[in-house]
Design brief:
This protein is α/β, with parallel strands linked by helices and 464 residues long. The chain has two domains: 206 residues, Rossmann fold, CATH 3.40.50; 244 residues, Rossmann fold. The protein contains 18 helices and 18 strands. The strands form four sheets. A seven-stranded parallel β-sheet has the order 5-6-4-7-8-1-9. Strands 12-13-11-14-15-10-16 form a seven-stranded parallel β-sheet, with helices on both faces. A two-stranded antiparallel sheet has the order 2-3. β14, α14 and β15 form a beta-alpha-beta unit. The N and C termini lie far apart (51 Å). Belongs to the DEAD box helicase family. It is an enzyme of class 3 (hydrolase). This is DEAD-box ATP-dependent RNA helicase RhpA. Its EC number is 3.6.4.13.
Length: 464
């Protein structure tokens, strides 16, 4: 087994790694660090949670070592571009920790906060700058900073930057940087567009892949449940309460749905906060800290906002909405099952989302069978036999004979507990002309529930 001491890292870095409790390098670190120290350009694919940040940060810090200054201003010699604010903060914090004994200055700049505040952060410059493309380009165009002394360029989560349309900004940024530099592309997933970008930016790069392309971690168990769209919020609440989940990261497709689901969970007694691009940085930071400190049970996030979140030993991720881009599934489930820990990924699959599930299975090379919603107990979820094991016509026949659907049992239990907790609550009529079904009023089978309220009206977003 390779040890950090065998990777020719300097004493200061080795001492810091020991202080941080790092024992042995991960596979991506063991392979990437020597190549980067040799000055090679690199295109690397590794699953989220495998130590990508240390894989590029450690050798870059090693080559920089002593700061270069002009009148106490630290010249920018390394630039790490990332797609989101959260990832910028995370990468900068980790890099700063590694650099502690070297006296190097590490700064993060990103959008969503006051420009002048971040300009003050750059008053003394930075040896290593971590930035989102938009904010960095603003500073370059206004001639507030310079990349003339840049030696190392890293594009982390390069696929996401392309998905977000940052390719034009990246091109403009590179016009401010020297052509003679080391360039590194790191990502959890790679595709043909990344290959084209690498061909344009990298010079005779080394290629590393720690797993089958776009595969999910083997530490993650995948479950998919066939549900009606209008029942999703109720079922999620049932799973969280019934299985006593304490820390759950939930993904929605849009910001509007994230806010609506967060409101619904809080009204059902499940403490939750939303994390998405419409939130100011102070709100996003507060939501993440509340989740990390177990002040809330659920963090509801969109794909962009959640990219780069590092949460130790996160037990489960829930896809409230399946992503319509299959690669996003790999990034989502990569929040759990990190650093050798076990994790679970649960997906609520509506009728119109089955094609997305098929795309995901094809991408990761793994079959995720659709199942009925499991029974939730304090000891965990009791998984049912996959739906695919029964012939579709046979299942339809049983439903016509009056047996409960896959959703009826868990959602009825949740509603009965809710109803019992509020004596005197009005019961809606079972007439076909009743109000539009909400998460507490499923289409599949009329059950006793509360009268639709403002909460129910807000939750109607889940019908689509």
């Amino acid at each position: 087994m390779t040890r950090f001491a065998e990777l020719n890292l300097c004493p200061e870095l080795l001492a810091k790694l020991e202080a941080l409790g790092y024992k042995e390098p991960t596979p991506i670190q063991a392979k990437a660090i020597p190549l980067i120290l040799q000055g090679k350009d690199l295109l690397a694919e590794a699953q989220t949670g495998t130590g990508k940040t240390a894989a590029f940060a450690l050798p870059i810090l090693q080559t920089l070592q002593a700061p270069q200054r002009q009148d106490e201003y630290h010249l920018i010699r390394a630039l790490i571009l990332v797609p989101t604010r959260e990832l910028a903060i995370q990468v900068a914090d980790q890099t700063l920790a590694y650099a502690e004994y070297l006296g190097l200055r590490v700064v993060a700049i990103y959008g969503g906060v006051r420009f002048d505040n971040q300009l003050r952060k750059m008053k003394r410059g930075a040896d290593v700058l971590v930035a989102t493309p938009g904010r960095l380009l603003d500073m370059l165009l206004q001639k507030k900073i310079s990349l003339q002394h840049l030696e190392h360029l890293v594009l982390d989560e390069a696929d996401r930057m392309l998905d977000l349309g940052f390719i034009e900004e990246i091109g403009k940024i590179l016009r401010f940087a020297p052509s003679q530099r080391q360039t590194l592309l790191f990502s959890a997933t790679l595709n043909s567009r990344i290959d084209e970008l690498a061909e344009a930016l990298l010079n005779d790069p080394q290629r590393l892949s720690m797993s089958t392309r776009n595969s999910a971690s083997k530490q993650v168990q995948h479950y998919a449940y066939a549900v009606d769209a209008s029942d999703k919020a109720d079922i999620l609440c049932y799973l969280i309460k019934g299985a006593a989940w304490q820390q759950t990261l939930v993904f929605t497709r849009t910001r509007k749905r994230a806010d609506a689901l967060t409101d619904y969970l809080n009204q059902e007694g499940v403490a939750a906060r939303a994390l998405h691009g419409d939130k100011i940085q102070k709100e996003r930071t507060a939501a993440l800290q509340a989740f990390l400190q177990n002040e809330i049970r659920v963090l509801v996030a969109t794909d962009v906002a959640a990219r780069g979140l590092h949460i130790d030993a996160l037990p489960q991720v829930v896809n409230f909405d399946l992503p319509n881009i299959a690669e996003d599934y790999v990034h989502r489930v990569g929040r759990t099952g990190r650093a050798g820990q076990k994790g679970q990924a649960h997906s609520l699959v509506g009728p119109d989302e089955k094609r997305y599930l098929n795309d995901i299975c094809a991408l990761i090379g793994q079959n995720i069978p659709l199942r009925p919603v499991p029974q939730a107990t304090k000891s965990g979820l009791q998984q049912a036999t996959p739906i695919a094991s029964a012939h579709p016509s046979a299942r339809a026949g049983r439903r016509k004979q009056g047996s409960k659907s896959a959703l009826s049992k868990p959602t009825s239990k949740l509603r009965n507990r809710t109803q019992a907790s509020k004596p005197g609550a009005a019961v809606p009529s079972k007439s076909k002309k009743s109000a539009t079904p909400t998460p507490t009023q499923p289409k599949a089978k009329p059950v006793k529930s509360r009268q639709p309220t403002d909460k129910g009206q807000r939750a109607s977003i889940f019908d689509t």
